[in-house]
Amino acid sequence: MEFDFRKGALPIYNRKKIQEEIPEVNTKIWSCESDDCNGWMRENFSFEQAPTCLLCNSPMVSAERMLPMLVNANDNLKLKAVAAAAE
Q1: Measured between alpha carbons, how far is residue 9 from residues 3, 5, 52, 67 in Å?
Q2: Most buried by CB count within 10 Å: which residue of 4, 16, 28, 32?
Q3: Nearest by Cα to 55 from 39, 43, 42
Q4: Which pTM does this prediction carry?
Q5: Residues 16-64: pLDDT tens digits?
């Protein structure tokens, strides 16, 4: 296959990786109470027992949402932080 680079024709490469589908699971989250705010976070990524919204500083309530499965490698840090706060 030849291309005439003088006329501006460039070869096009398509290297799309085939992405495997990530399974979705019912995940516990914290959701902002404010109707004007869409803030939320996964429960296992929060360090507080009852966090406040980082966007509007309103209280957050526990809820569930279908989300792609993630593994929190820092769960041990959260457990240590909760234990230290309890002391």
Answers
A1: 6, 5, 55, 43
A2: 32
A3: 39
A4: 0.61
A5: 777 778 889 999 999 999 999 999 999 988 878 889 999 999 999 999 9
Which phi-psi region, left, alpha or beta, contains residue 8 (left: φ > 0; alpha: ψ -120 to 50)? left
Closest CA to 66 of 26, 23, 29, 22: 26
Distances (CA, A) of 73 to 42, 44, 51, 81, 87: 14, 10, 20, 15, 24
Rounded CA separation 68/22 (Å): 6
The Cα–Cα gap between 40 and 46 comes to 10
H-run or E-run covering 66: strand 60-68
Tokens representing 51 are 């966090």
Q: Residue 46: phi, psi to the nearest 5?
A: -100, 150
